[in-house]
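User: Design a sequence. Structure:
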């Protein structure tokens, strides 16, 4: 099934794919500045948490899905020093920024390759990677079951999955405040920093429409993953889900 990622309602996949390509190709060079400002720097803490949760070793081949401007790829290179990272994303303009950071030495000695890849149709053979990372990617994908099936397929048996995504604060008061921030302040910040207010109306709506922690965990189990667990950050504004492909 494909959905409109802004509402969660059934809709043709092209609707969300074209919108997401439009948004990220136009904000690519301003994306990092917006992240830092809108989350008051919290995204750095969440990324560090993601790296603590990620079971990635020095001999691992890693694939970063929806790698964007390379934040997760470079954090992984620094924290885990794996054998190789394949940094992939749907939008070439985002990867162009990542490539520039790589040229400036952001990955240290870890070799990284970059390729434009739709996670819903990954062009790599089965069982190619030991570990998969993805931050803020799956929420933007209209065919989520298909994307998770593809991620499961390219992992080797025993391979690990680590996903950072916006989620749902369990506390009602905190959730109310957060949803107010999402609805009223995110479009304001986004418009100010990037000039693309509509892109940030989309961001807010897609966060609210995304399954909560338990529902996303169930999707992972349905895709075949085992040992599914999650850890909340900032009261559940963000969550890191971890899982493993069975041996
Ligand atoms: C919010 S950014 C996250 C980038 C990066 N992971 C980070 O943590 O900064 C979302 C990224 O998902 C990418 N994306 C959206 N749909 C995708 C798809 N179907 N396949 C691969 N990447 C996708 C977008 O191009 C964008 O770069």
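Assistant: Done.
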């Amino acid at each position: 099934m494909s959905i409109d990622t802004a509402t969660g309602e059934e809709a043709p996949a092209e609707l969300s794919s074209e919108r997401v390509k439009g948004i990220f190709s136009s904000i690519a060079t301003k994306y990092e500045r917006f992240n830092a400002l809108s989350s008051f720097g919290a995204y750095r803490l969440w990324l560090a948490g993601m790296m603590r949760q990620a079971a990635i070793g020095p001999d691992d081949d890693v694939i970063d899905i929806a790698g964007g401007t390379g934040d997760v790829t470079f954090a992984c290179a620094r924290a885990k020093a794996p054998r190789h990272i394949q940094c992939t994303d749907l939008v070439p303009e985002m990867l162009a920024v990542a490539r520039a950071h790589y040229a400036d030495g952001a990955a240290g000695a870890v070799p990284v390759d970059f390729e434009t890849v739709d996670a819903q149709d990954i062009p790599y053979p089965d069982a190619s990677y030991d570990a998969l990372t993805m931050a803020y990617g799956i929420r933007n994908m209209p065919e989520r079951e298909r994307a998770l099936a593809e991620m499961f397929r390219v992992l080797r048996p025993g391979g690990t999955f680590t996903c950072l995504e916006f989620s749902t604060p369990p506390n009602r008061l905190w959730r109310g405040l957060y949803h107010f921030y999402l609805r009223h302040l995110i479009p304001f910040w986004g418009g100010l920093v990037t000039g693309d207010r509509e892109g940030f109306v989309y961001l807010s709506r897609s966060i609210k429409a995304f399954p909560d922690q338990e529902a996303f965990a169930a999707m992972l189990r349905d895709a075949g993953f085992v040992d599914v667990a999650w850890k909340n950050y900032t009261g559940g504004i963000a969550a890191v889900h971890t899982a493993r492909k069975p041996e």
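The chain has a mean pLDDT of 94. Residues 20, 24, 66-69, 71-72, 89-91, 94, 118-120, 135-137, 140-141 surround S-adenosylmethionine (CB under 6 Å).
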